[in-house]
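TA notes, week 10

Several of you asked for a full example with nothing omitted. So below is the full record: structure tokens for the whole chain, then the designed sequence directly under it. When grading your own attempts, check the secondary structure regions first.
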């Protein structure tokens, strides 16, 4: 029973971020409920990784710092509000050490994604593809970039060597 709980705990984060990426791609939104659920899962799963109060404080500080930076980016119109909250909750999970790697990777992947989307918007879409509302949104130059995809990809790349991987390895 405990072993099964460890696997559920191990999968909570990657499944949540993958769902957020899919949601951002298809609807250009990341649900507040999903961000809150990821934050709550962090708290609930802390006992599984045996994190001490000092480390919890650093994780909270990292998430708060990323939230402040991301909200500034949102205020400047560079990212969406959902992306800002999503980046912060991911940083909460990773803390300072893995958080820096996450932010660097997310920046690189986000830049690549932005270039890819801008290139995509420069081509004429076949009618069979253009019928889908989510493809139309991606193709519309007035729409933003679903940056949650880059955030999720960076999070999934960092996750295997984070403290959370120890849930099934340790």
């Amino acid at each position: 029973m405990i072993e099964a709980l460890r696997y559920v705990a191990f999968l909570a984060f990657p499944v949540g971020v993958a769902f957020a990426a899919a949601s951002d791609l298809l609807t250009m939104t990341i649900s507040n409920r999903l961000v809150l659920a990821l934050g709550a899962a962090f708290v609930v799963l802390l006992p599984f990784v045996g994190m001490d109060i000092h480390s919890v404080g650093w994780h909270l500080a990292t998430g708060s710092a990323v939230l402040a930076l991301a909200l500034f980016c949102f205020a400047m119109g560079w990212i969406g509000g959902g992306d800002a909250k999503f980046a912060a909750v991911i940083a909460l999970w990773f803390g300072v050490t893995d958080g820096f790697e996450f932010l660097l990777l997310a920046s690189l992947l986000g830049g690549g994604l932005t270039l890819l989307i801008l290139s995509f918007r420069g081509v004429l879409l076949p009618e069979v593809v253009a019928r889908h509302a989510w493809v139309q949104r991606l193709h519309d130059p007035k729409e933003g970039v679903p940056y949650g995809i880059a955030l999720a990809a960076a999070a999934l790349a960092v996750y295997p060597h984070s403290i959370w991987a120890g849930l099934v390895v340790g």
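The CA atoms of residues 31 and 82 lie 7 Å apart. Use that as a sanity check on your answer.
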